[in-house]
Design a protein that fits this description.
10 helices, binds flavin-adenine dinucleotide, 380 residues, alpha/beta, 28% helix, globular, D-Amino Acid Oxidase, Chain A, domain 2
Length: 380
């Protein structure tokens, strides 16, 4: 795929408007629908619906955007991440200009647990391709000056000024509102089949009814199997469950306000993210997550291990009060890299399998979808 978003992602499309059905209104589908709508295309968004007990992957996500510290410095995955992080910055600016701000918590510190981690971080930062990306190695004494204390055992870290976190719920709301302004609101329904109809496509809905359009974008996450089968195709995706916690500091040393936190952003430690949320009531909240559990069943002991950071949690973290817990499923492609961005039939695009990085990769995915549709004149 190409990494360029069309030069002006504005309300003035350079190509003639296309009719497009987007199946799935998680962040990926909603992001695609919104960008297409901004370009003047006629978009019908369909979603099966979610509930607080059964959020989609996007609603359950932590919203950590890890691009600059990605372990490889080349290849499609690297480019996609860098491009998407940059696009998030323009998306946030565009939305803020329409009074729909998405708060951005800047910075990410990747902690090293052992000498091998430290060596990897040293190699990574010495790569010439990363010289201007805002990365810096931190030594142990610098970690020790941070408040509150970091997990015990951290030897050093790689700090990225440009990675960070946004709240996926806030992003869904802001993009959803701007999409609604363009007349794009999700139609509640379960899509069951995609079939060729004349020059375009028909998407059938459970219980009767259908939509027709020249293009179909399948962004239904783990709900793709039936739709792909109707096209004579398959994509092996497996669910990987993630549990997460919202906690609040409750120790005697907890400062009266959020000003007491001196962390340089998200802390990433042995696969877990600690995300300060000074914006939440009380100013002492943070998110901790997420577990990685193949399948759909949440395991209590895995959550417990996360809560104690496998025995490395500092005292203040052990004493923190739980305010909320939640879980969600990530769509992981089997035997192929995430995500899956593919034209699977003339006029049908697959935008799924984003696994652990769907929030990060939403803007680059939407740019790819727009580019595919506008570059192709056959299915107008
Ligand atoms: C706990 C957890 C933490 C995460 N943390 C991060 C993170 O920090 N950073 C990051 O980048 N990513 C993170 N992710 C991954 C990210 O959430 C996913 O990659 C992303 O949400 C995938 O988005 P999506 O829109 O493809 O899927 P989803 O958000 O799951 O949306 C799919 C939508 O399709 C709809 N649908 C399904 N089938 C049908 C059908 N037949 N008809 C109509 N509608 C249908 C569903 O109702 C759903 O709304 C996390 C995930 C989890 C679970």
């Amino acid at each position: 795929m190409s990494k360029a978003e069309p030069a002006s992602a504005s309300t003035n499309p350079r190509s003639q408007p296309r009719s497009v059905i987007v199946v799935g209104a998680g962040l990926v589908g909603l992001g695609c629908a919104w960008r297409l709508g901004l370009r003047g295309h006629q978009v019908q968004l369909i979603d099966a619906g979610t509930s607080p007990d059964q959020p989609n992957g996007s609603q359950a996500a932590l919203g950590v955007l890890m691009a600059r510290v990605f372990h490889r410095s080349s290849g499609c995955s690297w480019r996609l991440r860098q491009h998407s992080l940059d696009l998030w910055s323009s998306w946030r600016q565009e939305l803020a200009a329409r009074d729909l701000p998405i708060a951005w918590r800047q910075g990410l510190l990747l902690l090293a647990a052992n000498a091998a981690d430290q060596e990897r971080q040293r190699l990574l930062i010495s790569d010439p391709r990363r010289q201007s990306l805002g990365l810096e190695l931190w030594d142990r004494s610098r970690l020790e000056s941070l408040s509150p204390d970091l997990p015990s055992g951290a030897l050093g870290g790689l700090h990225s000024r440009n990675d960070g976190q946004l709240d996926p719920g806030q992003a869904l709301e802001a993009i959803g509102k701007d999409a609604a302004r363009l007349g794009i609101t999700p139609l509640h329904g379960i899509a069951t089949a995609v079939e060729k109809r004349g020059a375009g496509w028909r998407v059938s809905l459970k219980g009767g009814g259908h939509c027709e359009a020249a293009w179909v974008v399948l962004a239904a996450g783990l709900g793709l199997a039936e739709l792909l089968a109707s096209l004579g195709q398959e994509l092996a995706l497996e669910p990987v469950l993630g549990q997460a916690l919202e906690l609040e500091r409750h120790d005697a040393a907890a400062p009266a306000s959020a000003a007491g936190w001196s962390w340089p952003g998200v802390i990433h430690w042995q696969g877990a993210n600690l995300i300060p949320r000074p914006d939440l009531p009380g100013g002492q909240c943070f998110w901790l997550g997420a577990t990685l559990e193949p399948g759909q069943r949440a395991d209590a002991s895995t959550l417990e291990a996360l809560r104690s950071l496998n025995g490395t949690a500092p005292a203040w973290l052990q004493q923190a009060r739980e305010r909320r817990r939640w879980q969600g499923l990530r769509p992981r492609p089997i035997a192929r890299p995430a995500p899956v961005l593919e034209a699977i039939a003339p006029g049908v695009l697959l935008a799924s399998g984003h696994y652990r990085n769907g929030v990060l990769l939403t803007p680059a995915t939407a740019a790819w979808v727009v580019e595919q549709i506008e570059a192709n004149t056959t299915y107008a």
